[in-house]
Amino acid sequence: MTSSTPEMAERPPARGGYRIEPARRRFTLNARELWEYRELLFFFVWRDVKVRYQQTALGVSWAILQPLVAMFVFTIIFNRLGGIEPEYHVPYPLFVTVGLLPWFYFTGALSRATLSVVGNSGLVSKVYFPRLLIPIGSVVVPLVDFFASFILLIGLFLWYDTFPDWHAVLMPFFLGMAVFTALGVGLWLAALHVRYRDVGYVVTFITQIWFFLSPVAYGATAVPDDLQWLISLNPLTGVIEGFRWALLGRGLPNYDLYAISWAVAIGLTLSGLWYFRRVEHEFADII
Amino acid sequence: MGDIAMRVEGLGKRYRINRPERAETLRASVYSLLAAPGSRIREALKPPRHDELIWALRDVSFELEWGQVLGIVGRNGAGKSTLLKILARITDPTEGYAKINGRLSSLLEVGTGFHPELSGRDNIFLNGAILGMRRSEVAAKYDSIVEFAGVEQLIDTPVKRYSGGMYMRLAFAVAAHLEPDILLVDEVLAVGDADFQKRSLGKMRDATGQGRTVLFVSHNMASIRALCGRALLLDGGRVRVDGQVEEVIGEYLSMDDATHAGPIPDNVPRIGTGDARLTHVELLDRSGRPLSQVRLGQPFVVALVVGAKHRIPNAAFEVGISSLDGIRISTTFSTDKEQPPFELEPGECRIVVGLEPFLLPGHYALDLGVHHAGPGWTIDLVERVVDFEVLNVAEVGGDRYPSSAVRGYVRPQARWYGPQPASAQRALDLG
Question: Is the pTM of this model over 0.95?
């Protein structure tokens, strides 16, 4: 504790002043403040990762088990029974797993982000900090699972004795699309969830429908040419096709698709930031 | 800015309430939009109806100098907590502004963000970050925090295994190491046991002793008087008095509270035959002035109005006092000590009961009843019709309790005798 010195009362402190005003309509991101609070973002992520792996009996292996089981089921249902053939002549299990990993990341991040603000209502109603840290942190946390699940992919590469070439270093470029898509949609849903609690159920439904619209189980080339423009509006098409191109190393890069996917992902993020910032000032009153 | 720690100018906060027609589930929103898009849009565009808005805070302006301890007093709903929430940036004002010239933290946040699954050590760092401390700052104070909380042995155990007291101690230890320039304390919200309240007060004293700048919200006039030089009385969201602490406390204690006493609403649950109805109740002092707060040791009067449908020859009236958690503490009947029942004529009449002081400081509620004295049937009984507070401020002299030592509800009439030889036996005069 500080020792009591008489001068203390006279000393106007240099740090931490601020001005409180009614919420403005004009959009500002206040990135400087986000940067000042970067340690808190780190702690949110650290807390969620630590609790996640501390509470579950399987810990990290859960992140591998989930796509492993999905891989078997998908291979049997879509490939053996449904007759869906993989693109690029790679074994179907490898083909589907490369799509499943970013997909699992995306759904995990999206549902986590949606529930994040209400899930932290105790904090929101008691302490000030930039509210954006909550959804941002919640799309970072599932990245840990994502990287852990790469063990499965490495296992598959070894099993089929095939290895990615240098294009694999481009994977983060496509992962970024998934992060920003999850963040953009998650910001919208997290803010709506504060007012409309039904959104918590809606997100499950959204991800189910989204799954069938994304080329996880099938390849994008299976979609007729005249519908290609439609599926390219789904940034997950860019993510999954990009992952396959980077990791399986076959086919030609589809630059148009990547550009559209990135544009949609960024557009979603910007609109999500705009909406979230617009309504965040009422969170503490209605949460 | 110089010697001003905080400047508040025209601060106001408006809440929307009572909008039953406004959909708050997505389904209802979508339905109403589909069913009548025109009216929905028109409703959204037209200015909000007057009765849907309440100002929890309005036109609040004050300045706080460095080193000053400002007390904030007022009834429940006067806007005290709203003011603190705005200053702590938890909620936005609707109008006006506030300028805070230093690092501000509040003791309303104690334990906020603790995660039960994480260890004490992890929670210290997490909570410190949530309260705005840098990691390096927490690391530097870590040993001192652990020592202050006295949880060395369990520091690596998840806090869900801590006792309530240990949990609170750890939470408080983190908050106590914040060293803000301006401290906000809400004693009303300071949950926790007496020990914690005491620590919170002790922390306040430390802060004021160090020339810290403090904003202190409390219902407890004794602590306001002890800690603050200046105080602000909020009433209906507005500043009613801003001045020396004695002046403000005097004004606070003399405030009428029309909302607590008066007509008994029709919608309160009633038990009884209904041959008569209790319609009004008032809490008065001995000279007949309305009271909403009773001072320690102050006699008070309950006056009620009853309307009888027909003549009731043998009415027995009941006045009960309950704690706010619903425990009946005391009961008096008009027929106690073999008093004869009252005779009620058709129409309204007033019944008055004077009560000698016996309650300890705290919040209480009145229950009222009227019964048939002979068979004991209840004619009308209403519960919790008036809330009132017994203040920890004496009616006469300096009689009061240290805030942490109010235990129970009732102070019996007692006479204490000083030390005597252990073998002494004598008849006591209990007068």
Answer: no
Tally of domains within chain A:
1
B244 and B266 fall within a common domain: no
Tell me the CATH number at B360. 2.70.50.60
- The one-letter code for the residue type at A157 is F
User: How much is the pLDDT for A87?
Assistant: 73
B270-281: burial string, b at 16+ Cβ within 10 Å, e else: bebeebbbbbbb
Please report where in the chains the tokens 């210290």 appear, as a residue.
B124
Looking at chain A, the whole-number percentage of residues with pLDDT higher than 90 is 58
Query: What residues of A are in contact with residue B67 (Cβ under 8 Å)?
Result: 8-10
The mean pLDDT of B291-320, rounded to a whole number, is: 89
Name the more confident of A252 and A245.
A245
What are the residues facing B6 on neighbouring strands?
B64, B100
Nearest CB neighbour to B1, from listed A12, A15, A55: A12
Residues B172 and B90 in one domain: yes
Interface of B with A in 3-32 (CB under 8 A): 3, 5, 15, 24-27, 29
For the domain that residue B203 is a member of, what is the CATH number? 3.40.50.300
Candidates A244, A216, A255, A225; CA nearest to A107 is A216
Exposure string for A24-52, b = 16+ CB within 10 A, e = fewer: eeeeeeeeeebeebebbbebbbbbbbbbb
Residue A177 near residue A242 (C-beta atoms within 8 A): yes
CB contact under 8 A, B91 and A285: yes
The amino acid sitting at A56 is: T
Please answer yes or no on whether B86 and A196 come within 8 Å at the CB atom: no
User: What domain range is B274 assigned to?
Assistant: 262-405
Q: Is pLDDT of B431 > 50?
A: no
One domain for residues B225 and B279:
no
Q: Do A1 and B179 touch (CB under 8 A)?
A: yes
Residues in CB range of B347: below 8 A, 6 or more apart: B307, B308
Q: Any idea which of A57-61, B136-140, B245-249 has the lowest mean pLDDT?
A: A57-61
- B231-240 burial: b if 16+ Cβ within 10 Å, else e: bbbbbebbbb
Q: How confident is the model at residue A155 (pLDDT cuts 50, 70, 90)?
A: very high
Q: Is the dihedral of CA B29, B30, B35, B37 positive or negative?
A: positive
pLDDT at residue A181 tops 80: yes
Q: What is the number of alpha carbons within 13 Å of residue B185 lying toward its C-beta?
A: 32
